Amino acid sequence: MARMNTQFAVLLAAITLLFSDGPLLAQQPAALLLGEGKPWQTPVYVNDSGVDGPTVVITGGLHGNEPAGARAAEQIRHWPIVRGTLIVIPRVNTAGLTADTRYIPEAPEVQKDLNRNFPYTGIADEPRGEIATALWNLVVKQDPDWLFDLHEGYEFNISHQPPPGKKKSVGSTIIYDQTQNIDPLTEKMLAAANHLVSDPGRKFNLLKRGPVKTSLAAAAINVLSKKAMIVETTHQRQRLPVRTRQHRAMMSAALRQLGMISADCADVLTPPADKRQGHTFVALYDDEGGSDRGVNSLTHVFDGASDMTVAHLDADDLRPNVLSQFDVVVFGGGSGSKEAATIGKPGAAAVKQFVNEGGGYIGVCAGAFLCSAHYSWSLNLIDTHVLTGKREVPGQGLKSMWYRGKSSSQKMQLTKEGQQLFPNIAENVAVRYQNGPIVSPKQSPDLKPYTVLAWFRSEKVLHPPQKGTMIDTPAIVRGEFGKGRVISISPHPESTDGLESMLAMAVRAVTDASTPQPASQRTPATGKDAHPKLPPAVTPEPR
């Protein structure tokens, strides 16, 4: 279902023509397994262009609390290589990445830091530990011309002023050995990264002293006499989409300098549609307005689905040429109005175009507010009116009707259509609720009626005017917008024990063309399809 923007399509078409006699068949990366059969086994992707050129190894995730390198490497492995061979190991320290810890969980103290376990002449003759040994043997066997190891520092090197006795962070740096005479390439990488950075204190810097001894990059330089470097972004105060974009920009500059790609690939995050083999690519909004808890819960769900790959996108990524590479866009919890303000009119237009042309949209809580047809800032993707505004509460003054207090557990009942969509979920369940939209039909002439997939069968009431306004109203609804499909989810099944899989099932429902669409309907089983009459809202209010 993914679509492709014109520039991206032209690039791939040019490559297809260039290698139409056969070498293009090697463009599909072949997955191997490093440590096959071990608990820490991890995929290795070999992308051989079939044309003579350099061999490059890119590694990510040696430190498990540095996810940007792993995520960026997973995206880079899909780039269309025109010469040479690209070998990518995105998730070297799989257990550390899963546990979000720098080290190898349960490893001996002297081996826990994976990136200190490699040989270095005069210090260590052999790698230490199973993972380092397997990775080193792979690198030696592949005999690369270049090795790039993607990492993240904790502070911005150029502005970090540590107290006396503390080391300066290497965040936002390119660390290489200046005796290797690779300054032209590193300067290109530096310029590409700093083109994305406006704050002088966050600019990237070149550290020419060489990678730390016994690191993978240092071993490649010192033992194998290869060109190698460590590429660091900065974890602090930067969301994941910013860091992965910086990694991609630097690696795109490097591979172009080496003649391995023929155009800038910094915006290429997925393979072309004909290379997906049934795999679904999910764009997850991760920017202001979105909650960290929601992003983390949704990431965990999609990472756990073997048929899905998730990429974190921020407002700067919400452009047609990026969105068109994905099958579905997901907006999670937080604040719908802040999400709307952050993406702005260009981002909103890009999302609407994406869905209209056949993309899927999943909105959870704040994302359900965002896709509604209610507010001036709404995306108007699904025909939902939202209960909102302020009401006078005796003795308390004006109170917001959308706000019902802290997180609670509420009863939810799946409809017949919902049971078909979520076959592994019981008809009646308890679900986490935290001020998601209470919806009814907007009856917009520009939108089709929605289908109810689940009802709230209890309610959270904080103020008397709210009583009776949530119970027996839709909890989950499904609709169509143009050629695309939309699911609006008011509660939080992604963070409810036993219901997490509903989000992966929802993604499959909006992306699988073979999934039948139930007939649109507005009449609930209870006969209740709108909110009880309330006093007029004093002021409209964002959520």
What is the CATH topology of the largest domain?
Answer: Aminopeptidase
Relative strand content: 15-25%
Question: How are the strands of the biggest sheet laid out side by side?
Answer: 10-9-11-12-21-20-19-16-17
Q: What Rg do the Cα atoms give? A: 25 Å
The total domain count is 2
Shape: elongated
Going by helix content, strand content and strand pairing, the class is alpha/beta
Largest sheet: number of strands, sense, barrel closure? 9 strands, mixed
The percent of residues in helical segments reads: 25-40%
Low-confidence stretches: 1-27, 522-530
CATH architecture of the largest domain: 3-Layer(aba) Sandwich
What CATH first level of the largest domain would be assigned?
A: Alpha Beta
Count of distinct strands: 21
In oligomeric terms, what are we looking at? single chain
What is the name of the CATH superfamily of the largest domain?
Zn peptidases
Average pLDDT number: 91
Which properties best describe this structure?
8-stranded mixed sheet, 13 helices, single chain, alpha/beta, 9-stranded mixed sheet, Aminopeptidase, 21 strands, elongated, Rossmann fold, disordered N terminus, 543 residues, 2 domains
